[in-house]
Amino acid sequence: MELEYSADHEAFRRMLRAFLENNRARAPRMRTFASGVVDPALLGWQKLLIEHGYAARGVPREYGGAGADPDPLIATIIAEEFAQARLSRGVSGQGLDMLVPTLLEHGSEEQKRRYVPPTVRGEMLWCQGYSEPGAGSDLASLRTRGRVEGDTLVMDGQKIWTSTAQFAQMMFALVRTEADAPKHAGISYVLVPMDTPGITVRPLKTMTGEAEFNEVFFDAVRVPLENLVGKRGEGWKIANTTLRHERNMLGSASTSVKLFESARSTMRENRVDGRPALENPVLRGRLMALQAKTLAMKCHAMRLLTCQLRGEAAGVAGLVTKLNGCQLNFDLAGLAIDALGEAGILYRGGAQSSEATRWQFHYMFQLGLIIGGGTAQIQKNIIAERGLGMPREPRPAVPDPDAR
Ligand SMILES: Cc1cc2nc3c(=O)[nH]c(=O)nc-3n(C[C@H](O)[C@H](O)[C@H](O)COP(=O)(O)OP(=O)(O)OC[C@H]3O[C@@H](n4cnc5c(N)ncnc54)[C@H](O)[C@@H]3O)c2cc1C
């Protein structure tokens, strides 16, 4: 493995570092749309980042991106430098990180022109309508129906755990359009404006105290058929493209490195038994164990990068990132809370509060990410079966309709 960057890549890194230093004051504090209020500073920052090729870098110019050739090393340098500078990477979330790459791969020209530019600018917020009360890990069991009437799709059913649905203008959703087809074959992928009559959104409060996700009900919701992405009944393949991007977004090595540095600062600055927490042997031992895991995540990311540069598919190695990264981030937050002593149990809610309450928020939020995007158990099953060649777990028996 070649660990040195080329002279051109190092020059890019210097240019980016100077940009971040010179523009630090323009960066927004708030990185997400958590409150539903679009921060104008974030939109301005996103525009600046795209102009310089530091955001939406691989998105073609005609769809509002920076239009640069894909270069995984440049992408890595960008992630490293923003993490190092502790500055916002601009707009992120299900629209830009999951839907945009899906539309670029499978969308029609009209869909790309209509939806990608406002999403890239951060002006169009999306939510993901996949999970249902009876279909989470076994997503293909979903039952929300899509009935075709002329050139319209009429949707009836319910989604659940839909993050940001209360703020989103659009949803990308999975619906069953062919009731008689085998379960993976009868699913379509559709883009749904959230202000369509017949949609009801009910926020669900999580243990963070905030309503991060929702139940969404569809009662005869009429959507034009042209909003289908790909062909009718062929949505499962497209859904999996989106899931691949979701797993890449969750548990990245650069996030863990940033959280590790932050936990170490917390331990340096807070005292336990009259001495910095970093000098407490038990806490220090835990930090070192997590440092080893963080380094392992970095090496794993380099391995994936090498695969990418060689044009090889990463296979289940990509799932290892989500599985280990989310668990590691959760453990880092737990350690920081313990290092804060009594202050660690304070929680006023929200990511913007003081240091102690920030760690409480991270702890609960990261626990959610171990479940979201496919639970840890499901990732382990896939890694074991497809990666390690272990036997498939027994499938539940199909009930005999004649049995009493
Ligand atoms: C923070 C957060 C945000 C989310 N955002 C969204 C969103 O925006 N849109 C959306 O559509 N969904 C979202 N989800 C839902 C998420 O995708 C599902 O929660 C997840 O897929 C698990 O499904 P479930 O909740 O129905 O649990 P179940 O599938 O019912 O699983 C329950 C438990 O059983 C285990 N289990 C299930 N099957 C197996 C098996 N075969 N082997 C071993 N163990 C198994 C699971 O690991 C889990 O521990 C979000 C979830 C969270 C936590």
Total helical elements: 11
Strand content: 5-15%
**What structural class do helix, strand and pairing data support?**
alpha+beta
Indicate the CATH architecture of the largest domain: Up-down Bundle
Output mean pLDDT.
90
CATH topology of the largest domain: Butyryl-CoA Dehydrogenase, subunit A, domain 3
Helix fraction bin: 40-55%
In a nutshell, what does this entry contain?
The chain has 404 residues and is of the alpha+beta class. It has helices at 7-23, 40-52, 72-85, 94-106, 109-121, 235-249, 253-269, 281-309, 317-339, 355-371, 376-387, and strands spanning 126-129, 145-149, 152-159, 170-176, 187-193, 199-204, 213-224, 228-229, 271-272, 275-276. The longest helix has 29 residues, at 281-309.
Outline the structure in words.
- It is a single chain.
- The chain is of the alpha+beta class.
- The chain has three domains: 7-92, no CATH class; 126-232, Beta Barrel (Butyryl-CoA Dehydrogenase, subunit A, domain 2); 250-387, Butyryl-CoA Dehydrogenase, subunit A, domain 3 (Up-down Bundle).
- The chain is 45% helix and 14% strand.
- The protein has helices spanning 7-23, 40-52, 72-85, 94-106, 109-121, 235-249, 253-269, 281-309, 317-339, 355-371, 376-387; strands at 126-129, 145-149, 152-159, 170-176, 187-193, 199-204, 213-224, 228-229, 271-272, 275-276.
- It has a four-stranded mixed beta sheet. Strands 2-3-7-6 form a four-stranded antiparallel beta sheet, with no helix packed on it.
- β9 and β10 (275-276) form a beta hairpin.
- α1 (7-23) runs parallel beside α3 and α7 (253-269) packs parallel to α9 (317-339).
- The longest helix is centred in the C-terminal third of the chain and has 29 residues, at 281-309.
- The protein is globular, with a radius of gyration of 22 Å.
- It starts with 6 loop residues before the first helix and ends in a 17-residue tail after the last helix.
- 34% of the residues are buried.
- Residues 127-131, 136-137, 161-163, 213, 368, 371-372, 374-375, 377-378, 381 line the site of flavin-adenine dinucleotide (FAD).
- The site of flavin-adenine dinucleotide (FAD) has 19 residues, from β1, α10 and α11.
